[in-house]
Amino acid sequence: MKKFALLTLLLSLFLCTHCNKPSENTAENIATYEADIIVYGGTSAAVTAAVQAVRMEKSVIVVSPDVHLGGLTSSGLGFTDTGNKEVIGGLAREFYQKVYNYYQQDSVWKWQKRSEYGNVGQGTPAIDGDKRTMWIFEPHIAENVFEDFIKENEIQVFRDEWLDRENGVVKEAASITSIKTLSGKVFKGKVFIDATYEGDLMAAADVSYHVGREANSVYNEEWNGIQKGVFHHNHYFQENIDPYVVAGDPSSGLLPRISDKDPGENGEGDHRVQAYCFRMCLSNHPDNRVPFAKPENYDPAEYELLARVYEKGWGATFRKYDPIPNRKTDTNNHGPFSTDNIGMNYDYPEASYKRRKEIIKEHEDYQKGLMYFLANDPKVPAEVREEMQQWGLAADEFTDNGHWPHQIYVREARRMIGTHVMTEHEVLGHKAVEEPIGIGS
Predict the structure, then answer these.
(1) pLDDT band at 8 (very low <50, low <70, confident <90, very high)
(2) How many DSSP H helices and E strands does the chain contain?
(3) Which of these CATH numbers, 3.40.50.300, 3.40.50.720, 3.30.300.330, 3.50.50.60, describes 11-210+414-427?
(4) Domain positions in the chain
(5) Percent of the chain with pLDDT over 70
(6) What pLDDT sits at residue 162?
(7) What are phi and psi of 55, to 5 degrees?
(8) pTM value?
(9) Which of 117, 82, 109, 108 is CA-nearest to residue 96?
(10) Helix axes 44-55, 139-152, angle to 10 degrees
């Protein structure tokens, strides 16, 4: 499921009134900053929480490991899942209204006329003139909106500040009193909000959490645990695909990206998390397209499994090149072998910063290699190669990162175990929520 800012945080309980000015600890030469609320993270949820704090007349500091704000919302995930959009309110709806305002400017439509844009969203028009909202957008527009939120509310943001996960959390009893980043900065507050995808502050503060799938027995569920042999929405092999390096010869070994490990028994729990990918922003405008380059460590054998899928007649390569304005895409995984780098992220949620960088780099290399393979390898059907050669990375997006998204798609990582855990019973309507704090569709 896609994740974006629809978070209403229980800020009404926050009663302190410190100012957020820095003080210098001259004895240890450590800069200390203080506010009512410290938000750790640079995601859309982080910005949303900080804005809400200001509106409740609290002082707030955002401590962000990221330089660019907005997380996935400003890193390629612009084809928003809306469902029944009437349930989307509050600051989330303000975000989509601000996006709408940007696209009312003719200067924004640089690579495509507004009239040429298909205005197609997920179950709703992309541009809803009656409601003055826009649900489909380019990455840099989303980032502009988040920066506007920060500027308008005069929120202090510390960027590229990483929590000292080993020794950076100080508590009194069960309450956090301060956190320290790897640069040595200390942030004191009455309330701390973890708005990261990984839940690093949560874990460092000894909050209970889970990684992977719980067994069905934990919450008396049917669909949570291992589900081998079960149809999963178009991410499956419709035909028998030979898995061996030399077709028909088990002694030759398995192709890359295939695991020979026992998947376990249905209903059991495991450590596996949903696959990650990058939501690439692609363009087919010849003046705004950066061709797919051949990665230094490129190995076409890594994609042999996909070649064999094509041999069986699969033809949905471009199904999830979802259109966003200015002849660009929000490109997501689709099919049995695609941008999801399956099985390569299982240790990411609790990995060290160093290890996470390695995992992210491996995902980037895999996905860039996949794009080059699709556009150039003779094992790819000619019509696919010809179409792929019309696409490239959008030249006007992520310009400080080689046009590659800043944020990997962390679909899930740690999950907090609170006083109540939402399960399939609530989602499927089998159990009522007595004290709801939000609504979704």
Answers:
(1) very low
(2) 9, 20
(3) 3.50.50.60
(4) 11-210+414-427, 229-262+273-410
(5) 92
(6) 98
(7) -65, -20
(8) 0.91
(9) 82
(10) 20
